[in-house]
Amino acid sequence: MTMRPLLPALLLLLLLLAGCQTQPLHPQGGSDLQRWLEQELVPYLARQLSSHPRFRGEPVALVAMQGDEIQPDIDELSDALRRQLQDALLEQPGVTLPWEPATAGLSHHRRRARPDCRAGSRARYYIGLQFTPLADGSHRLSVRLLDPGQGEWVAGFGRHWQGRLSGREQRALSRRHPDETLRGLRPLPFAGDQLDRAAEYLANNLGCLLQQRGEERLRVQLAPVPDGPPLLGTIRALLDNNLSRFGQLAVTDDPGRADLLLRLEAQPVAPGLYQVWTGLVRRRDGDHLNGLDTPVYVRATGAGMAKVTERAGAPRIETLALTPDPAGWCAGDACYQARIRTRGEGELFLLAHTAGNGVVRLTPGCQLQRGPAEDGGRGYRMRGLALQPAGHSTLYAILVQGDAARSRLRRHLEQLPAGCEGGTGGGLDGPALDRWLTGLDRLLAGEGARLQWQARRTP
After folding, report:
1. Are residue 69 and residue 168 in the same domain, yes or no?
2. Are strands 218-222 and 176-178 parallel, antiparallel or unpaired?
3. Do 231 and 265 have their domain in common?
4. Where is the signal peptide (predicted)?
5. Which residues constitute the domain of residue 208?
6. Mind giving me the DSSP string for 250-317?
7. N or C, which terminus of the chain has less Cβ within 10 Å?
8. pLDDT at residue 307 above 50?
């Protein structure tokens, strides 16, 4: 007896096992959850979204929720349920689902073989899926409808399931991955090394908006980028190539031949997070073309200086100055000192980002000189900051009011490596930094007027 006859069978078995492991999860057909989805949830959503005058024809997206927040990542169980719901709802007349990328790396308008640019490609409503574990080992699935325009849940809309998940469903619930359907939106911005995808996203959306208006082939000139984060220049260069792929637009450098001028603008919305806008202006009269603005969110920590919106009654940072410190004791890198002036009661926190070295916290942990209170304000100074010159490092100052908010921010900052005198290298970077910044975004959004921040790049 030889082993040779067994080899084909063994290979077949291995291939079958490998195939089973790469199959996408679908909730088990006989599970309580699956029966509830097919018999109750799908008919309910189809009825509401196709016939209710408020929802009929409005684009609706399905997302993972935690509390009142859309989550940038999604568990495999919710993702499988979402795919089933999408397949069922797409068969219903009157139900509109926004575009989603077919793979991670393609932006929203690349899902179909050809551009399908219906009006309302952005979600008007979000159906939130949230699993909550219960004390007896069972789980509760809540399905609710969020109206982001009103900032509230839609009253009277929703369904709930409670029961025990199968073993496979529990394992799927524990595995999470980024929800690429949200890429480019506030919950999941493009990362600093994904500017090519951000440019493609902007170009695709702009091409679809022009197609909706029935515009013929137009010549567009890209305006010089204004002062702002360096990412704008990179996106502009990439847009030049991406726009040429659309039949509606031809890029020209000749102002006399251009029909339109394309402008780019970046506004900071949180430390390291920017909303980048494109806008079109007619060359002949300078009028802005309404309805063609396209935004995208980009993560670029340390890329620029934030503008601050003041709120009545809130603490504020009046000045943030970063200057060379010739008398400092920095080793190797350029040496800087920071001077900050605040107004109102609050605690000041500092952190620094250096390109290639990540983010470190300066407070709590490093020596911050605190001046006396004068005229409702206070001055601060920190010396010996070893930073990279010429805009390669950015100092962030965060002023927070209230004991609870102060404690939450302190706990979050303590996850960062400390960077005191003698260098600010070895900071948090890569995927770990992305996760930390996502948590910071949520914290900033939740604190509202109790928290204010500014940023300053090194001269």
Report:
1. yes
2. unpaired
3. yes
4. 1-27
5. 195-299
6. EE-S-TTT-SEEEEEEEEEEETTEEEEEEEEEETTT--B-TT--EEEEEE-TTSS-------TTS-EE
7. N
8. no
Give the whole-angstrom CA distance, residue 105 versus residue 176: 18
pLDDT attached to residue 29? 54
* Average pLDDT of the segment spanning 295-322: 63
| Angle between helix 231-243 and helix 195-212 axes, rounded to 10 deg | 50
Last residue of one domain, picked from the residues 299, 331, 366: 299
CA 197, 202, 203, 207 torsion: positive or negative? positive
What is the amino acid identity at position 359? V
Residue 236, domain CATH: 3.40.50.10610
- Residue 151 inside a domain? The answer is yes
* Statement to judge: residues 54 and 155 lie in one domain: yes
List the beta bridge partners of residue 127.
62, 145
Same-domain status, 264 and 329? no
The CB density around residue 194, as the number of other CB atoms within 10 Å, is 17
Is the domain of 361 the same as that of 260? no
Q: Rounded distance, CA 420 to CA 17, Å?
A: 53
Q: Which of 181, 214, 245 is the last residue of a domain?
A: 181
pLDDT band at 112 (very low <50, low <70, confident <90, very high): very low
Residues 108 and 177 grouped into a single domain: yes
Query: Which contiguous run of DSSP H or E holds residue 88?
Result: helix 76-89
Instruction: Dihedral sign for Cα 231, 234, 240, 242, please.
Output: negative
Q: Is-contact 277 264, C-beta < 8 A?
A: yes
Lowest-confidence range among 11-15, 51-55, 233-237?
A: 11-15
User: What is the spatial distance between Cα 239 and Cα 25, in angstroms, rounded to a whole number?
Assistant: 37
